[in-house]
Automatic annotation (TrEMBL):
One of its GO terms (biological process) is glycolytic process. PROSITE patterns: ALDOLASE_CLASS_I. One of its GO terms (cellular component) is chloroplast. Its EC number is 4.1.2.13. Belongs to the class I fructose-bisphosphate aldolase family. Keywords: Chloroplast, Glycolysis, Lyase, Plastid, Schiff base. Its main location: plastid. The keyword Lyase applies. Pfam families: Glycolytic (PF00274). This is Fructose-bisphosphate aldolase.
């Protein structure tokens, strides 16, 4: 049997450890142009390159951000973009000791033969795109696929999600990028927390099965799971302690301790809820770094505070720093509301 020994293995392990360092987590700012457009529309701005650049400049320039943030996931446009003052965004991040990352999937499309589910595109040409992203300064990647509980999930959808993630992870490692493995289990639905737990167990079993088949180096990946919560429309709500109990039980059953970091997505939780849940998970020792890779739960107040007005930039950056610091404390299990 030939086992892949990658040229980048040492570097991958080092990058993953840097991102999974105490008191720090990831700022997900990799909204596609379409999603960024929706965010801008919510504050009455047009989806122009200039507006996206202004917003992304605001996100990467708060002084001291690197104390709480170890990595920033960028959309391709931003990896090649400069700030409004003409400085490369990648350079600003590196100066702040924030590792630049890149979203590499090409989004979701309908999965023929399934129960109205989807699959994630992007494997074609991935190796050459990633080699170029590495040259541009990216050191980690993200691939987000989704699993829907109300629509099944069907065996087919779970297998497709897991296989795609495993191929992406192997190709990323071959090109020097630490893959963030993100099978998002969508919050939508009326199901209870037990059902989410059951589906998550199935999904992670398959993801690790196929990653092993593809000779992925587990020490050089990061995971981006959904927390185990009740469906968004479920009447029985869960406390942060219940979310932490179920989620840690899932991780202990399914995630090898070789994996350095678990960086949760916020998935539509409120800012405070996402912080409280993370804090509850860090009340005891864990075999992995348990942290955050939030987009909405870091950006919501920041975006609203900015409202596209230059005079609000400082207040908006303070709002981002406030959430970043709160989640940094939650990573250390020391957050108090
Ligand atoms: P949210 O934290 O807003 O769920 O976004 C994280 C992310 O990167 C989704 O892929």
């Amino acid at each position: 049997m030939v086992v892949r020994a990658g040229a980048y293995d040492d570097e991958l392990v080092k990058t993953a450890k840097t991102i999974a360092s105490p008191g720090r987590g990831i700022l997900a700012m990799d909204e596609s142009n379409a999603t960024c457009g929706k965010r801008l529309a919510s504050i009455g701005l047009e989806n122009t390159e200039a507006n996206r650049q202004a917003y992304r400049t605001l996100l990467v320039t708060p002084p001291g951000l690197g104390q709480y943030i170890s990595g920033a996931i960028l959309f391709e446009e931003t990896l090649y973009q400069s700030t409004v003052d003409g400085k490369k965004i990648v350079d600003i991040l590196t100066e702040q000791k924030i590792v630049p990352g890149i979203k590499v999937d090409k989004g979701l499309v309908p999965l023929t033969g399934s129960n109205n589910e989807s699959w994630c595109q992007g494997l074609d040409g991935l190796a050459s795109r990633e080699a170029a992203y590495y040259q541009q300064g990216a050191r980690f990647a993200k691939w987000r696929t989704v699993v829907s509980i109300p629509n099944g999930p069907s065996e087919l959808a779970v297998k497709e999600a897991a296989w795609g993630l495993a191929r992406y992870a192997a190709i990323s490692q071959d090109n020097g990028l630490v893959p963030i493995v993100e099978p998002e289990i969508l919050l939508d639905g009326q199901h209870g927390i037990e059902r989410t737990f059951e589906v998550a167990q199935k999904v992670w079993a398959e993801v690790f099965f196929y990653m092993a088949e593809n000779n992925v180096t587990f020490e050089g990946i990061l995971l981006k799971p959904s927390m185990v919560t009740p469906g968004a429309e479920c009447k029985d709500r869960a406390t942060p302690e219940q979310v932490a109990d179920y989620t840690l039980k899932l991780l202990h059953r399914r995630i090898p301790p070789a994996v350095p970091g678990i960086m949760f997505l916020s998935g539509g939780q409120s800012e405070v809820e996402a912080t409280q849940n993370l804090n509850a998970m860090n009340q005891g020792a864990n075999p992995w770094h348990v942290s955050f890779s939030y987009a909405r739960a870091l950006q919501n107040t920041c975006l609203k505070t900015w409202a596209g007005q230059p005079e609000n930039v400082k207040a908006a950056q303070d709002a981002l720093l406030l959430r970043a610091k709160a989640n940094s404390l939650a990573q250390l299990g020391k957050y108090t509301s």
